[in-house]
Amino acid sequence: MLKETNCPREDRILPIIGTIPVSLLPKKEEIGARLGSETDFNQDLLHKYYNWTLTGNEIIVYTGYGYCDVEIPKTYTYLICFDEQTKSLDVLATVKFAIWNGRIPLNMIESGHHTFCIIEFENGIPDILKELPNWDDIQQGNYKYYKFGLCEKEDVDLILEKIANME
Question: Model-level pTM?
Answer without folding.
Answer: 0.93
